[in-house]
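Design review, sub-item: ligand-bound model
Attendees: FS, YL, KQ
YL presented the inputs for the beta-D-galactopyranose complex:
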Amino acid sequence: MEDKFSWGVSTAAYQIEGAHNIHGKGASIWDVFANTPGKTHGNQHANVSCDFYHHYAQDIALMAQMNISNFRFSLSWSRIIPGGTGAVNPDGIDFYNKVIDFCLDLGIEPWVTLYHWDLPYSLELKGGWTNREIINWFTVYVQLCLKLFGDRVKHWMILNEPMVFTGAGYFMGIHAPGRKGLTSFLAAAHHAALCQAEGTRAARAIRSDATIGTTFSCSLIEPYTSSDNDQYAATKLDALANRMFVEPLVGKSYPVKDFKLLNRLENFVKDGDEAKLAANVDFIGIQNYTREKVTHSYMVPLLWAKVVKASKRSVDHTLMDWEVYPPAIHSMLHQFSSYGKPLIVTENGAAFNDIILNNAVHDHQRQQYLQMHIEQVLKAKQEGVDVRGYFVWTLLDNFEWAEGYRPRFGLVHVDFKTQKRVIKYSGHWYANFLQSHGESALQLSRTA
Ligand code: GAL
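KQ shared the predicted structure:
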């Protein structure tokens, strides 16, 4: 992949698009989950959200105005193939063609995620990620997308954070599709791990000129105390949260040695899977927001460990109760650099209570958060970590999954009643940074 450093912003289809049931779109698991009472904060859903579907031209123009030259967004599978398999939806394809073409017209590089959590609901009715058939469903979808858009989209990501969508969606039941239990989690996880590799191969077979990666959530995991029990808890959580999906992809298989429970994945492994789990990605996307302190606990079955929340530790934290700890991203870049692939920070950002005065949004905490994290990324780069990009989560305030609209992560404020956009202080700062310091800071790191 190219050497240059890419600065950008990240988004996801379900969180911004709205237009949930028009122009031929099929329902996704998130449409169904969020419209089921009791599942999200205040029963909120993203039926409309920022209505990017109707405002894409304005929003892409806004990005150009902010000097943002790389835009990461995801494709909604059920907008393209409403039933998950079978007939395609020409209006859905037309929408993404317009988004891609308008980006390119304005000099913005599209970076496309193929799956950011919104599985077609009809596939969930057949078992969703727990059904091994998903490898075929997903491969056909990937091939179609690469054929449709691969002439213009050069950067692809196969999955967004498999640990989160399988853990929250199939083990804890707090995300769509809301299933609970170890068995559904392990099945979903193994199939997602196979799909990230098969999806990579399928995409490459269609477009050998594409740059292909996939993304992982990661947090710096540290023991709460120096006790042996807490250290053991931290090793287990690191294996589960940071290593479980990336290691099989790079040919190291699941980290069962450090978290024995993962042995039970065996129940879903078929002959030949070990080799199929590995794939040759061009880059690894890492998505870091925080550090977690973990302690041994008899209250959490299976893991026997629990995270001590930032608010309980009296440390600086965001609205999500995530500690603000910029060295975490530096550590994670070093940790993931051991896999020998170029890295891209495909998400980093923060939710705070924004102060709005005279039509201006004074989000100084977000600006500081971003600056401190970018400094840590550049520090890792200077130390020799092969990091080639940084994407802010996110462009627009949007639907934050089970948390609804309360946590705002955007560089741009959205009034969800009027759909009015206002660039926040942090957005102006990022725009200025991209115009000047972004480049010079990097030149510094190149000559160091
Ligand atoms: C990531 C996810 C995004 C966004 C972000 C902030 O885990 O990929 O969709 O919600 O967290 O919570």
